[in-house]
Amino acid sequence: GENVEQHPSTLSVQEGDSAVIKCTYSDSASNYFPWYKQELGKRPQLIIDIRSNVGEKKDQRIAVTLNKTAKHFSLHITETQPEDSAVYFCAAAYFGNEKLTFGTGTRLTIIP
Amino acid sequence: GAVVSQHPSWVICKSGTSVKIECRSLDFQATTMFWYRQFPKQSLMLMATSNEGSKATYEQGVEKDKFLINHASLTLSTLTVTSAHPEDSSFYICSARVRGADEKLFFGSGTQLSVL
Fold first, then answer.
1. Does residue A10 register a pLDDT over 80?
2. What residues form DSSP beta bridges with B42?
3. What is the mean pLDDT of the segment spanning A37-65?
4. Which chain B residue has the Cα nearest residue A107?
5. Which of A35, B22, B43, B51 has the highest Cβ tally under 10 A?
6. What is the average pLDDT across B72-79?
7. Which residues, other chains included, contact B78 with Cβ-Cβ below 8 Å and sequence gap of 6+?
8. Min CA distance, A90 vs chain B (Å)?
């Protein structure tokens, strides 16, 4: 089955700086890679996703890059703000299967 | 985005009792829903895939007689934790797929189960 590794487990960034979270996956058949943001005690919220037919996707301050050959993808948050503080999870799936395999999560703290 | 409603948001029960958790898709039909559990400071682990009108598919290591799943309609899936024990205490979250050209998964609000 799919195995997703996520690094780092914790990340502290000064407000206004950029944050990068990286994930690797094992199953070359996976072709859908969403990122979720989860605040304490709340549901995961989809913030951005990418399919394997593109290498990069951007939505305002958030971007995701994908390297299919190396089987890794990354979340980039620019101009970080205190409200970006949360736990972020990457995931991988074969599109149409929807069985997401989640990474272990990254606790991002934005320092004012 | 699509709305997935989950109820209750938290429940405390005595050891040995059963607890039912509901997951509803409010503005779309979901032929497939997924049930996850999440321990504190850990990732989401898929427990089972709930299929409307058929038996659920359980992940390896998940006891189907312990975690009963019913998906009787296109908008409702239920998870019943039977004979709950303290080790079943966890955050349970459902998700549902929104079909279309841009298929996505949306999550319910989660249920915090505490078994005394």
1. yes
2. none
3. 91
4. B41
5. A35
6. 90
7. B20, B21, B22, B23, B69, B70, B71, B72
8. 10
**pLDDT of res. B103:** 65
Instruction: Look up residue A109 and give its two tokens.
Output: 């703290």
Beta strands in chain B (DSSP E): 4-7, 10-13, 19-25, 32-38, 44-51, 57-58, 67-73, 76-81, 90-98, 104-107, 111-115
By the 8 A CB rule, do B3 and B63 touch?
no
User: Chain B residue closest to A95 (CA)?
Assistant: B103
| Percentage of chain A exceeding pLDDT 70 | 97
The C-alpha of A78 sits at a distance from chain B's nearest C-alpha, in angstroms, of 24
CB A67 within 8 A of CB A73: yes
CA angle (B40 as vertex; A25, A10 as ends), nearest 5: 55
Q: pLDDT band at residue B101, thresholds of 50, 70 and 90? A: low
* pLDDT for residue A107: 96
User: Hunting for tokens 């239920």 — which residue is that?
Assistant: B78
Q: What is the dihedral of CA B26, B77, A45, B104, to 10 degrees?
A: -80
Cα–Cα dist B34/B14, whole Å: 26
pLDDT digits (tens, 9 = 90+) for B8-43: 999 999 999 999 999 998 888 888 899 999 988 888
